[in-house]
Amino acid sequence: MRTAPVSYSIAILSTISIGILAIGSPISITDPALGGWIPLLDFSAVLAFVGSPTTLSPLQPGELLQTRNVATSSLASSLITWIPRAKAIVQTEQERTRAERDAFKHLGNRVSALEPPSPSSATLSSDHKLIRSLDPHPSPPSTTEGIDAIQQAYRDTVLSIPHYGEEYNEPLVQNMAIEFGEDLTTAITTHSQLTPSLQQAVGQAATAASVRRVRFSNRLDDEATTLTDAEQTLTTTGKQYEQATEQPRHHQSVEDLHETHQQLTTCLETCEQLIEERQTQRTDGHTAEPHTNETVDLQEYLYYSIGVTYPVLVDATTVLERCTTERRRVEDELVLRL
């Protein structure tokens, strides 16, 4: 898959800095495009910044009581929305990358099996010399079979992958130039015959294109594992949150409120750790774009189409906000009990 122009409907979250999540503690984010650090007072602003579809509004006591009997899986299903979409994208990208890998491998095999004309066949035959002596401008002998075979092999392999029309939809020469470079493509499309050196260069180029897909496929495997782990972590955290908040605060003793506060703190710490790990992965997650050796951000490359460049950060921040809001309410209740 080739990188498409990225048009973001939301600002890209570059870094998230999460401090001690107590009442009044500042939370800051920064993005180079916005000119530096921006202090935020709550995670609803973070969610608006990264483009999450959900922002928790403060609930009145009566409203809060009406929401207590939500099913255990509701938090994960309602707030963890972007990671499942990201997993589907990675799966599709993996299937297409492997198809392209195999196509270039088959192309290399077909090119290697070609037999370039021998040196003797490159010279003019005696009959052609005789014709030339009679006609100073004769048609040259046909020596393009090998060159034509390379272009046909490219059509039969690379241009025939199932997603080619949807993904690229380019003429042969344009696609070949992106994959093999302008010089080699010019040689393939303008030379009158296939030479051993040209045959070797095409075979090497096809192998290199296939190897790029192998490397990219490995990175996609890592990304798929990361997404699955993040989804499981947030699902578990969501269940822990709901267990901690199952009983209405006004029915809890002070001791129970302290226990609930600790449980919510644990949920917060889990989200913080996940966000920090994902930020590290984002920083270290640059990968060679499969058509060239250009370095791109893997997550920008994969997720530009869904409007959220960093789906794990968005979902983790959404769950974190829910836990933060509830913990602050527990703290408010503890203050009232003094």
Automatic annotation (TrEMBL):
Q: Which region is the signal sequence? A: none
Bias class Basic and acidic residues marks the residues at: 247-258
Q: Which domain of life is it from?
A: Archaea
Query: Is Cytoplasm one of the keywords?
Result: no
What residues does the DUF7260 domain cover? Answer: 81-327
Per the UniProt record, which residue ranges are transmembrane?
6-27
Which keywords does this Swiss-Prot/TrEMBL entry list? Membrane, Transmembrane, Transmembrane helix
Q: Where is the composition biased (Low complexity)?
A: 225-237
Spell out the protein name for this chain. Answer: DUF7260 domain-containing protein
